[in-house]
Amino acid sequence: MDKLIEILGSAREITDQVIVTDLLVTVKTGIINTAKAINETGNEQLRTDLKSKLHEHIEQHERIFSYMMEHGYYFPQTPTQQIHVLNETAETVLTLNKD
Fold first, then answer.
1. What gap in Å lies between CA 86 and CA 75, rounded to an integer?
2. pTM for this one?
3. Phi, psi of 38 (to 5 degrees)
């Protein structure tokens, strides 16, 4: 039973990390695409609306980034540590898939 709880606990952590990483990438893409759209529109009202949306995306990014840092999912200042976290995550996923 303890082994099952250990596996389920690991799976939950991996799931949280995968979900929040995907969310961060999605928000980053939204920031990039919204900035491009602002530069390419000639409609002033649309530009204003897009700027508002861009600020929302940036605020979402800040919240997600903070969450990831607090939970040990993201280490942008220490690439070596980030690579270690990514390798551990990959190894755990591979182990879970074998069971």
1. 10
2. 0.69
3. -60, -45
pLDDT > 70? residue 5:
no
Contact call for residues 76 and 4 (beta carbons, < 8 A): no
* DSSP H or E stretch at residue 81: helix 79-98
Token couple for 63:
């919240």
Mean pLDDT computed over every residue of the chain: 83
Amino acid letter at 43? N
- Which amino acid is residue 41, in one-letter code? T
CB 23 within 8 A of CB 64: yes
Q: What is the DSSP string of 12-80?
A: HHHHHHHHHHHHHHHHHHHHHHHHHHHHH---HHHHHHHHHHHHHHHHHHHHHHHHHHHTTS--TT-HH
